[in-house]
Amino acid sequence: MGELTSTNFITYEYPMNEKIRSWLRLETLLAQVYELSHITSYSSGIAFFRAISELIEILDRGEVRSELVKELEKQRSRLLTWAESPNADNQLINSLLNELSEKISRLMSASRSGHQLRSDKIISMVRQRLSIPGGCCSFDLPTLQLWLNIPQSQRDNTIKGWLDSIEPLKDILQTILTLIRQSGTFETKASHNGFFQDSVEGKELLRIKLSAEHLIYPQISGHKTRFALRFLHIDSENGILPEVITFELSCC
After folding, report:
1. pLDDT tens digits, 22-34
2. Quick check: 4 pLDDT over 70?
3. Which end of the chain is more exposed for a tag (fewer CB within 10 A), N or C?
4. 247 vs 213: CA distance, rounded Å
């Protein structure tokens, strides 16, 4: 997902397959759920439950846990291959291998992803109203209005229980995406007349680092082995593109 850094560079990401596409969406929703979990008003409460509802929908579409475990096994095999290299830091690799094994065990022993969220009465009640435009007014949901006014400590305990139930999923997803992102190295590239294309082999994620200074963003398209970048100005009618645009590209 796009990320603003302190140096005013933005890292744009683009998935090269459906698996990474789903994981990036899941990562975004988990970030929203955790960020919105400190509810301060009725409106922020609705925003939190909307994020929870979308998270449940993504978890219901497939067996996320088995796919993540499969990916961790793949990363573990890769580390074992690196360990055979003559210059390998075996102490670091063994530490990473132990960490991955612990995460796999923790995820497998946890309840089915999202089960506690699906079965909660408050969440279910709000989810039923979210598909109706404006359907979460206080007169539609007096139970929620009451719940949002119970002592903060009680509400915090309930929310903590919800977050604890998805923590193993969040942890393992973050580990996998970090390993994937770190597998690529940024290289400086140049786009002429706002266009750049290239081919890749065996890559799953494109990362483009671009300065926000000129108000230019990349429109990215690609699948499996080929991709194209078209750089556009945020003001599509009056904005001017430089003839040469320098950016950094990492194929992970």
Report:
1. 999 999 999 999 9
2. no
3. N
4. 12
**Sign of the torsion angle spanned by Cα atoms 54, 131, 63, 250:** negative
Q: CB atoms < 10 A from the CB of 238, how many?
A: 6
210-231 pLDDT tens trace = 999 889 999 999 888 899 999 9
pTM of the model: 0.87
Q: Mapped to the 3 state alphabet, what secondary structure does the chain carry? A: CCEECCCCEEEEEEECCHHHHHHHHHHHHHHHHHHHCCCCCHHHHHHHHHHHHHHHHHHHCCCHHHHHHHHHHHHHHHHHHHHCCCCCCHHHHHHHHHHHHHHHHHHHHCCCCCHHHHHCHHHHHHHHHHCCCCCCCCCCCHHHHHHCCCCHHHHHHHHHHHHHHHHHHHHHHHHHHHHHHHCCCCEEEEEECCEEEEECCCCCEEEEEEECCCCEEEEEEEECCEEEEEEEECCCCCCCCCCEEEEEEEEC
What is the average pLDDT across 35-47? 93
CB 184 within 8 A of CB 210: no
| Domains along the sequence of the chain with CATH | 37-182 (1.10.3900.10), 187-251 (2.60.440.10)
Q: Kindly report the number of other CB atoms within 10 A of residue 216's CB atom.
A: 20
